[in-house]
Amino acid sequence: MIRLIHGPDVVSSRTFLLRLREQNPQVVVLDARSIPKHKFLETLEQENLFGNFLIVDWFEEKHFVEGFKSLQQEIVFWSSSTLTNTSWAGKTSFFPIKSVGVFKLTDAFGLRQAKLSQEYLELALSEKNPPEVILSLLSRQLKQISLALSGEAKKVSHSSFVQQKITDQAKLWSEKGIKRAFRSLLEADLAIKSGLEPKFSISLALAKTQI
């Protein structure tokens, strides 16, 4: 069966995807961005032969090719976009943005989702989360990502789910990027303590870290 997971709430959809990965130990993950469209179906068919649980990550509408329905293996397609053509999927899970919290902000930040991070920041502030708490949690997220990037994901948490989530986020970062992000968050903290508007200061810091 082909399953499609898509929608703009990438924090919730990635969490859902990780739950599926936990339930299936023999997992092969393919990054759709690295597969030429003319070889897409061929690549899936090759992986199909080994009977592994297959995840096609970062899938977009432009990757779609005819023939997906002919695949017999259980395959999960994950997309950060809202796909318009979903008829080829046997089961679809759509994740619109419904609710938000400061912890969703930190995950969007870790996933380097610039637009989503800004949206979650605005909503997190509207929920009366203190700016210092937001900055503290963003810094904590960076520390966890840094550990995972250094191959020490087990120090992040005893939960394999949390370890995998942070490990996936770490793939999107470099040590240089983490240092730059820490510096931006520190600058935001100092700016707020100097009397600058918290929303602007943190928003600017988020923008700098997504470059």
Lay out the secondary structure.
Blueprint: E1 2-6, H1 10-23, E2 27-31, H2 40-48, E3 53-57, E4 75-78, E5 91-94, H3 102-110, H4 114-126, H5 131-149, H6 160-170, H7 175-193, H8 198-209
Parallel strand pairs: 1-4, 1-5, 2-3, 3-4
Helix pairs in contact: 1-6, 3-4, 3-5, 4-8, 5-6, 5-7, 7-8
Q: Main beta sheet, described?
A: 5 strands, parallel
CA radius of gyration is: 19 Å
Q: What is the helical fraction, as a range of percent?
A: 40-55%
The order of strands across the largest sheet is: 2-3-4-1-5
Give the total of beta strands.
5
Which residues sit in consecutive blocks of at least 5 with pLDDT less than 50? Answer: none
Secondary structure tally, helices: 8
The end-to-end distance, rounded to whole angstroms, is: 38 Å
Shape: elongated
Please describe what this structure looks like.
The structure is a single chain. With 211 residues, this protein is α/β, with parallel strands linked by helices. The chain has eight helices and five strands. A five-stranded parallel β-sheet has the order 2-3-4-1-5, covered by helices on one side. Helix 1 (10-23) packs across helix 6 (160-170) and helix 5 (131-149) packs across helix 6 (160-170). The radius of gyration is 19 Å and the shape is elongated. The chain starts with a strand and ends with a helix.
